[in-house]
Amino acid sequence: MSDYLATVNAGVSVLLIIIVGYVCTWLKIVPAKDFGTLNLFTAKCCFFFMTFRSLAGKDKDVLDFRPLAISVLMSLTLYLIFAIIIFLPFNDSFGLYISIVFPTVYVNYFISGLPIFLALWDESETAVITVILIANDLMCSPIFLTLAKIHELRIQRQKRKTEQMEMKSIDDNIEGDSYSTTSSELESSSISQKQTTEKNNTSNFNNCKNNTTIHQNHTALSETHKNHDQNVNITESDSIEEESAEINIDKKKKKDKINNNDDDDDHYIKKLLLEILNRLIHNMFLVGIVFGMIYLAITSKTCTFLKELMNMLGDCVLPFALFNVGAFLSTQSLIACHWAEALVSLIGRLILGPFLAGIYCYALGFPGRLSQQCIILASMPTAATCFTMTDSAGIGSGVSSTMIMWSAVFMVPVTVFWMWILEVTKLFEE
């Protein structure tokens, strides 16, 4: 396996194609929308034949599911190890955990891994890549989507709790204002009556001769004050009623919003399952694997027409996909997240992942050649599809774009490093 020169040449070729796509988009030699069309064609037409041909026409003995077990165990262990982030004192520890762990477990086994694999082993063994790839779509993606939905639900419940507290505060303020208004009205009425009585007694005592006239004036004055008080009370009552009506409307809107959120919560599980199922059905990598297994179970022969079709469309995947990776990276920042997040995710993807794969291969007693293949594939960079999923979920897109770029940059030296480790330790000799 220690063909370092062939490995470096394959890795550099991958990086050069990515750089060409980057430069063409950055200099606007090729419009970004054209790369979008190319990406759609690659995903819908070519991905299927790339995985299909790795199984069709092969012997049934090539289908070994042991690499899938390594990929599943490695990914689950990474999910569990990085879960310690949840207990750290960050503002959104759970969201940070999701952002870091998914780019760490979502590996570019095929696009980046195939050239490296072919530089070290025979093409007849590429079924290993096909099998190990299944873990991405059947385990890593569903776990991420579930965690992202849980995070979204937690945020919505927190907002709902805040709104309920605000409504309770408004109700308390309304009751307090009503009580103070009633008390002040009663107090002012009592003082007014007392002053009027004292004034009338003094007037009657000093002006006995004009008693009739004073009585008439007093009656007229009382009626005037009474009409004025009624007008003031009516005005204040109308104002209070208008304010109460506005507050009730706001409260009703907030309650309706909370009820709607409760209805959405009831459908979260159904929506999540439908989303996962939809992604599985439209994943051409996975569809190609399924049809390849069916074809493999029926026959081990392929006609010339089908073989040429598989070769033509399957061979388009690597250059087109790598071109699109370069075009994508040209629209992103070199570091779109905090440097510590990128560093932790890089260590998990390029160092911890292959290390765990080696431990599980040794523990399960895998053959030396198969163990080497699993460890080298486990050191591959983050898949570009990771950004699409995180951006759609609204969490972790910055870490994903950073990981796609820098894990690809370090792919060659990391691969050579693990080749050297395997050669020095001689744990997995063929």
UniProtKB/TrEMBL annotation:
<feature type="compositionally biased region" description="Basic and acidic residues">
    <location>
        <begin position="161"/>
        <end position="171"/>
    </location>
</feature>
<feature type="region of interest" description="Disordered">
    <location>
        <begin position="161"/>
        <end position="248"/>
    </location>
</feature>
<keyword id="KW-0812">Transmembrane</keyword>
<keyword id="KW-0813">Transport</keyword>
<comment type="similarity">
    <text>Belongs to the auxin efflux carrier (TC 2.A.69.1) family.</text>
</comment>
<feature type="transmembrane region" description="Helical">
    <location>
        <begin position="346"/>
        <end position="365"/>
    </location>
</feature>
<feature type="transmembrane region" description="Helical">
    <location>
        <begin position="68"/>
        <end position="88"/>
    </location>
</feature>
<dbReference type="GO" id="GO:0055085">
    <property type="term" value="P:transmembrane transport"/>
</dbReference>
<feature type="transmembrane region" description="Helical">
    <location>
        <begin position="403"/>
        <end position="422"/>
    </location>
</feature>
<feature type="transmembrane region" description="Helical">
    <location>
        <begin position="95"/>
        <end position="121"/>
    </location>
</feature>
<protein>
    <recommendedName>
        <fullName>Auxin Efflux Carrier family protein</fullName>
    </recommendedName>
</protein>
<feature type="transmembrane region" description="Helical">
    <location>
        <begin position="6"/>
        <end position="26"/>
    </location>
</feature>
<dbReference type="GO" id="GO:0016020">
    <property type="term" value="C:membrane"/>
</dbReference>
<dbReference type="InterPro" id="IPR038770">
    <property type="entry name" value="Na+/solute_symporter_sf"/>
</dbReference>
<feature type="transmembrane region" description="Helical">
    <location>
        <begin position="38"/>
        <end position="56"/>
    </location>
</feature>
<feature type="compositionally biased region" description="Low complexity">
    <location>
        <begin position="178"/>
        <end position="213"/>
    </location>
</feature>
<dbReference type="Pfam" id="PF03547">
    <property type="entry name" value="Mem_trans"/>
</dbReference>
<feature type="transmembrane region" description="Helical">
    <location>
        <begin position="127"/>
        <end position="150"/>
    </location>
</feature>
<dbReference type="InterPro" id="IPR051107">
    <property type="entry name" value="Auxin_Efflux_Carrier"/>
</dbReference>
<dbReference type="InterPro" id="IPR004776">
    <property type="entry name" value="Mem_transp_PIN-like"/>
</dbReference>
<keyword id="KW-0472">Membrane</keyword>
<feature type="transmembrane region" description="Helical">
    <location>
        <begin position="280"/>
        <end position="298"/>
    </location>
</feature>
<feature type="transmembrane region" description="Helical">
    <location>
        <begin position="318"/>
        <end position="339"/>
    </location>
</feature>
<keyword id="KW-1133">Transmembrane helix</keyword>
